[in-house]
Amino acid sequence: MTTPAQHDRDLAEGRVARLKQDLRDGLAPPPGDVEAMDELVATAHRLLDAEQAFDEAKRRLADAELESRHAATQRAVVWFAAAPVLVPLVAAALVLFEVLSPVWLLVLVPLFGAGSWIGFAPVRRAAAVIRERTRAAWAGSVTALVLVGALLPWPAAAGCTIAAALGVAGTIALLWRESRIP
After folding, report:
1. Segment 61-80, tens digit of pLDDT
2. Closest CA to 80 of 119, 31, 38
3. Which of 2, 12, 128, 140 qualifies as a cystine partner to 84, CB 3.0-4.6 A?
4. Does the pLDDT value for residue 1 go beyond 80?
């Protein structure tokens, strides 16, 4: 099913193609009189107007697609932010009750801040911003899962701790890149 913006673009594209064909047909045998030449000039003007309308329809379609991506991203990042916000909160409670060392706060606080930014900061309507926020959301969610692995007492906890610290740095770097996009 096509959207109204796609339909407008398709209609404008068809009109441009039809006018180009009319212009080619009119020029196939060279125009012999002034009226035929005037008709070709009028067709050329209509073609120019149709091409401008086609460009405008393409721009509206791109805007509609960007708006659709923007809305989907805003909905998705709220869900993606759950893990980077909740895991540090639970781990911070474990620090509070002295189950974990306070050194964990060096990882927990930045991940909580990044998760809060991912979930609750507004997403601007720019393709690059939407792409960076989506990447940051994925990175934050994966980092939260790796942090859970780092908090569990098992032999790979040290590797998960390093991976969690790198994941937090990567998530923050992605959010920083997003904030630098004009």
Report:
1. 888 888 888 888 888 888 99
2. 119
3. 140
4. no
Structure tokens at 104: 């964990």
Q: What is the DSSP string of 37-71?
A: HHHHHHHHHHHHHHHHHHHHHHHHHHHHHHHHHHH
What pLDDT score does 75 carry? 87
Q: Which of 116, 110, 128 is nearest to 166 (CA)?
A: 110
Check: CB of residue 19 under 8 Å from CB of residue 11.
no
Q: Which are the contacts of 73, defined by CB distance < 8 A and separation ≥ 6?
A: 123, 130, 133, 134
Residue with tokens 């923007």: 70
Token couple for 173 = 């770097």
Question: 167 near 139, Cβ under 8 Å?
Answer: yes
Global pTM value: 0.73
Q: How confident is the model at residue 109 (pLDDT cuts 50, 70, 90)?
A: very high
Q: Where are the alpha helices (DSSP H) in 81-156?
A: 82-96, 105-120, 127-151
Average pLDDT, the chain: 92
Q: Measured between alpha carbons, how far is 81 from 75 in angstroms, rounded to an integer?
A: 11
For residues 78, 80, 85, 86, the Cα torsion angle rounded to the nearest 10 degrees is 110
